[in-house]
Structures are given as C-alpha cells and as structure tokens.
Amino acid sequence: MTSTEIAQVDQQHLWHPFTPNSLWLDPDYLPLSIASGEGAWLIASDGKRYLDGNSSIWTNLHGHAHPKINQAIKAQLDRIAHSSFLGLTHEPAVHLAQQLLRYTRLSSQSPNLNRVFFSDDGSTAIEAGLKMILQSFAQNGQGQRTLFISPEGAYHGDTVGAMSLSHSPTFHHHFQPVLFPTQKVMTPACYRCPFNRAKPEKADARSYRKCNFECASLAEEAIEQAGDRLAAWVLEPRVQGAAGMIMHPHGYAKRTATSARKVGAKVFFDEVLTAFGRTGTILASHAEEVTPDVLALAKGLTGGYLPLAATLTTEEIFQSFSGDTNRTFFHGHSYTANPLGCSAASASLDLLESSEEIKKRERLVQNLSKLSSTFWKHPYVGDVRQEGAILAIELVADRATRTPFQVEKRVGAKICHTAREFGLITRPIRDVLVLMPPYCTRPEELEKMVHALHQAITQELGS
User: Fold this and answer.
1) Section 167-184 average pLDDT
2) pLDDT by residue (tens digit) across 411-451?
3) How far is CA 371 from CA 160, 364, 367, in A?
4) Judging by beta carbons within 10 Å of its beta carbon (0-12, 13-18, 19+), is residue 171 exposed, middle or buried?
5) In terms of DSSP bridges, do strands 266-270 and 294-297 run parallel, antiparallel, or are they unpaired?
6) Which helix or strand (DSSP H or E) is residue 350 part of?
C-alpha cells in the first residue's frame, strides 16, 4: 500500500488514542505512516526520515532496531512465544525478575523490594499495585485503610482504579461517576506555584524559587490528617508526565514518603515514565533516597519493543496473601510475563548496565542541558526545565505574568506538527513541548532535534 492508501484506510476504520476526531478525520489532514525505524530515526512509508524526539511516547530507550534486543527476541521466538503464567513459570521471567530486583535496589542497606508481578502496561501495573495494598491491609486487620492521596494533576493510567488514583479532569471527567473517591493535594510545580514569590527568570523555576516548601508541608498535613485511614501515598517521583512534565523540587518525594510511613501507610511510586535512567538515576526515587513499598514500571521496560509491565513489592505485602486460599491475589492477565517481552526487557537491562551505555546517557544529558538554553531566545517561552534526559519547554502568552495561551489555540500541537517539516516527531502536553530522545541519539542528531523544534516555534510564534 502507498502512504496515501494507508492513511485513507486508517481514517475510515481505525480509532487512535488521545486523538481528536476533528483533527484526524479532517480531509486536508494526511496521517503520517511509519514503516520502519533505525536508531533515533523513524522512517515513513514514503521514505522520509524523522528524528524520534519523544522516544515513541517515552518508551524507546536504546533506539529502534537495536541489534542486541532484536537478537534476544529472535532467540526466544525460536523457543516459545507465549505460555500461560497461571500455575506455570519460565526462565525468561525468572531471569528478568532477578535482574529487576537487583537493578532497582537503592543500596545494600535499603529495604528490599523482593517480589515481581508482571502485567501489560502502566495502567495495569498501577491497578495491580493498588489492589495489592488494599487487600493486604484488609487481610491484616486494617480494612479501614482505603484512602489514597496523590498530587493534583496526577496521571496513573486509564483503567478504573488507575483513573481513580489520578486527578486529571481533562482525560477522566466523563468517568467520574464510576471512580472511587481519592484525595488530592497541591501540585509541587514551582513555575505556577501560588506560594512562589520569585519573579520569572530565564531559568528552571525550581532553581530560583522563593517559598517555604509549602507544597511538601501541605501534603504532609493531609497525610497526617488521614492517619489510619490512609492506604498509600501515590506519587510520580520527580516528574509528573501527563500533567505537563511538571518537575518537582528535589526533596519532595522523600519528605512526603517519610510522612506516609509515620502514619503506617504504604508508599506507592509510579515510575512508568521516570525509571531506567530517564531522570539521570536508575530510578527517580533513588535520587530521593526512598525505596517505595510498591513500585510500578512499564514503558521503557522492554526498551520500547513489546508491552510489558511490572509491579514490584515487599516480602511483607506478598506474605500477607499466604494462608487460606481466600487470601489469594485474584488478579492477572492472559499475557502475564510474556517470554518475548521478558527477553527484550532482559536485553534492555543488560544495555542499561553497561559502562559504555551509561557514559552515552551521561553525555546525552549534558548535551541536552547545553542546547536547551537556545529556547530562551523565544519571548513566548516561560519555563525550560530538565530532569535527566527529559526536557520540557513551557510556552506562555506573556512571560512576565506567566499567562498561558488560550487552550483553543492549540499552540503546542501546531508547533509539533510544524516540527515535522523540519524532520522532528514529538508530541506536546498542551503547551508544554517535550524532548525525550532515545539514549542512542548522537550529538549531531540531538542538535538537529533542538534546531527543528526551535525553527517550529519561530515559524508559529515568531522570533
């Protein structure tokens, strides 16, 4: 099929996630069809090449068609592609579990995450975790612990439980009647914090904030007031992705986790986005020196190859399900611990731990930091923030007052669409532009990404 034929059939029959029908079905809009990938590049059906500026929605760590991951999948495919994990096991899952538990351990002195439950994606990893916590407390005589607290703007997925833990009205307002109640606290967002007395500067707002860390104090107060009703403090540590790549002031996760444990609650971290070196450390929670009681992993787990997720938890929670068969964790998925996914994930972890790859990531982070300063040339850039290999550029109608653009203008979406003309594919979060390149991205490719986005901003908003 030609690229035009692919696009036409798509518009007639397919339904895409997070995509407005008014845009996708516009007769003047021709969807871009991707045929192949190579390193940091995506290659369209018509042969045009585009840099993958958001790692295919935050998943592709090592680049497309990586030979080591390809080979791991091919080798497993010759053995078996899938078998049930209900009452059976297999070596790829056992090996990956050992790797994950070792890889995610903060230090030899830290509490252990000792059990791994495999599922399919970020939402299912969260769903499994919240059910583990609720059932564990119920079976330990603390059935009153049913409350979950998380920051405003939190996004943990689109299954019913994950939506309930979230506070994302843009995505979930239609489903409020079927969600269970949870509590929210203010978002720890320095750029738009009402307590931040600092005037706007050309720098990450976290670096010049003037406040008394009220966001952490208010969260601590809410946790303390919840007391023995609190089941878990739920957090995307360091970076709230779908909320707009909101990057927390350092120390927030540690303070709030400590507060949750003081009242006997669990600490539940969603590192679907932030794990596997994205924020500069193995886990974002490592930088905060916190080991959660439950940890959700997905997205980059397989290096962006196959759907696989993992929920890691403690031996204490696992053992609370022992005894009578009624205490069984009646939760699972048909493709739990798929051997192909496990093999891809093991190969990805091998790459993440190699000294050569670690140096490559460190250079990428440093180069991204240097290049990011170019965005301050635009008067409509209000905040440029970076956490590891994640860069966010927040656009505003007025820098001095932090006034956002009207939502109807769809400024971020238009800029990212224009960026394709300059050979870059990325996706905004409203008017926050995101660059999250694969770790294999070479310095000259990173420069092209930044230059393409810079040109797109200029073309849409002027210099």
Assistant:
1) 94
2) 999 999 999 999 999 999 999 999 999 999 999 999 999 99
3) 40, 10, 6
4) middle
5) parallel
6) helix 339-353
**pLDDT exceeding 90 applies to what percent of the chain?**
94
Distance CA 54, CA 417 (A): 14
What superfamily would CATH give domain 32-65+355-461? Aspartate Aminotransferase, domain 1 (3.90.1150.10)
How far is CA 198 from its chain centroid? Answer: 29
Q: What is the mean pLDDT of the chain?
A: 96
The burial class, CB within 10 Å (0-12 / 13-18 / 19+), for 88 is exposed
Q: Quote the pLDDT of residue 108.
A: 63
pLDDT at 22: 87
CATH of 73-353, one of 3.40.640.10, 3.40.50.1220, 2.30.29.30, 3.90.1150.30: 3.40.640.10
- What b/e string do you get for 186-212 counting C-beta neighbours within 10 Å, with b at 16 or more? bbbbbbebeebeeebeeebbbeebebe
Q: In terms of C-beta density within 10 A (0-12 exposed, 13-18 middle, 19 or more buried), how is residue 331 classed?
A: middle
| Per-domain boundaries in the chain | 32-65+355-461, 73-353
The predicted pLDDT at position 110 comes to 63
The single-letter code of the amino acid at 253 is A
pTM for this model (two decimals): 0.97
For residue 431, the one-letter residue type is D
Dihedrals φ, ψ of 433, to 5°? Answer: -85, 145
3-state secondary structure of 393: strand
Q: How confident is the model at residue 26 (pLDDT cuts 50, 70, 90)?
A: confident
Of 269, 280, 273, the residue nearest 239 (C-alpha): 273
